[in-house]
Every structure is written in C-alpha cells, then in structure tokens.
Amino acid sequence: MNKEESMLQKRLVELSRLAYNRGIVVFSDFLNLNELNILHTTPKDMFLSQYKTYGGYDLSERQMAVFLPDALYYEYEYPIQTIEVSPLNKKFSEDLTHRDYLGALMNLGIERCKIGDIIAEDHKALIFVKEEMAEYVTDNLTQIRHTHVKATIGTGVQVDYEPRYEELKGTVSSIRLDSVLALAYPLSRSKITSQIEAGKVFVNGKLITSNGYRLKENDIISVRKMGRIAYNGILSETKKGRYMISVRKYI
Asked: Domain RNA-binding S4: where (predicted)?
C-alpha cells in the first residue's frame, strides 16, 4: 500500500471512529474502484462502526461509504443528488460522451470525489453528485464542448435501475475471469492478462489480479477505462466440454 492509499485508509478509519464516538451517521465522498477496494480489504477490526456503500443505484460503480453508529434505529438517506443534462437544441447537439460530461464538470472546478457515476444515453446524461454540489452544477453547467445544455435536478432513479447494455453470447473453455473478458472485449488473451495483472480489473468492487479467478453468476466485472460487464451464467454445455455463456456489456 503506497502513501496515498495509506492516507485514504486512515481517513476512512477516522470517519468510522467519528460515527462511533459521536453516535452519528457519517458519509465519505464518492470512492472510485481502487478506493472501494481499499475500504473492502481493510481488516474489519480497524473500523469502530459498521459501514455500507451506495452510489445512487444498485449497479453504481462510484459509491459513497456510510459509517453507522451501533445504536442506529432510524432511516437515513445518502446525500446524493441526480442532475439531468440535456441539449437546449437537440438538432444541433453533438454526440457527447462520458468524458465530455466529466471534463465539463472538472472545468467548473469540481473535485472528482464529489461526482459519482455519469450515465450518457440518447443525447442526455444522468449525473450523480454530492448533494452540496447540485445547485452549483445546475447554475453553472451551461455548455459542453460546443453544445449548449440545461442541467436540472432530477427525481433520481430506482435502485434497480440498469444502464443500457448489449447481450453477448459465446463459448468459453472455463468460467475464468480472463475467458469471460475475452468474450466481452476484442483483445488478445495476453492483453487481457496484462490488464488483470496491472490491477485494472475489479469483481463486485474488489480488485482481482488472478486471471484464473472463477466467476459466479451475476458477478459485475469492471475494467478501468473500458467499462463494465455482468456475467449472466452458463446457458448450456457443448459436447466438447465447453460452456455457452451470456454476459451483459454496458454501453
């Protein structure tokens, strides 16, 4: 663990201590995959209070941690707000990407840790932000690249909301991480192995560096800068002992 990772771990432990000592609910900023992995792999006895994570919907990649005092018997809400962004004139709008939306937010001086997932679909985007930033974003996000946009506070999404995806089917020799990734991404097995060994692949939020890791049905696999897939499971077995599987590749 490097210095930066050690500092994050120390900060998360301190949030846990704050929740325990004051008997209050304490939230972190949005955590990325690496940071969530640090949280999940920190020995539980280092935390004085229990924690949960959430990012606005069940399949969210960037999530906040909430630390809960032991005597908590009331409801709480994560301080997450959704911002809906759409072009003022769809006819003259550009085909904006996740990177475009993120770049525009960063140009407003917003720290990355205040921004959760960004879902870009059909010339629109749904952006999850810390509640404290919502009004600032709606007041100041008026243009992305050359496209003039309007940003409004949304009504949120259902927890079981699922971004658009394409279903892929194919045969693999085994339900290993590298085999399933090879079905989803047009890369050679050696390139996939190097991605895994370089610490760029996470399964259900936990860093996996073994290409032989065995997947379970409904596992969510995230590959940094390449996106996410969900392993649906085995559809059938061929006479030669290979497995026909299905995955959802989120667009």
From this structure: 175-234
pLDDT for 120 equals 92
Q: What gap in Å lies between CA 234 and CA 222, rounded to an integer?
A: 20
> What are the φ/ψ torsions at residue 213 (nearest 5 degrees)?
-60, 130
Q: Half-sphere exposure (CA, 13 Å, Cβ side) for 10?
A: 7
- The residues, ordered by sequence, that sit 6+ positions from 65 with a Cβ below 8 Å of its Cβ are 12, 15, 27, 28, 31, 39, 51, 52, 53
Among 89, 157, 66, 167, which Cα is nearest to 118's? 157
Among 66, 42, 36, 72, residue whose Cα is nearest residue 52: 66
User: Of the ranges 38-42, 71-75, 87-91, 154-158, which one carries the lowest mean pLDDT score?
Assistant: 71-75
Q: At what angle do helices 33-41 and 3-22 cross, to 10 degrees?
A: 60
Alpha helices in 25-157 (DSSP H): 33-41, 98-107, 134-140
pTM of full prediction above 0.85: yes
Dist. CA 147–CA 85, nearest whole Å: 11
Using CA atoms, how far apart are residues 86 and 89, in angstroms rounded to an integer?
9
CA–CA gap between residue 16 and residue 49 (Å, rounded): 5
Are the beta carbons of 249 and 165 closer than 8 angstroms? Answer: yes
Q: Residues with Cβ < 8 Å from 63, sequence gap 6 or more?
A: 30, 31, 36, 53, 54, 55, 116, 205
The side-by-side arrangement of strands in the sheet containing 143-144 is 115-121, 124-130, 80-87, 147-153, 143-144
Are residues 48 and 117 in contact, defined by beta-carbon separation less than 8 angstroms? no
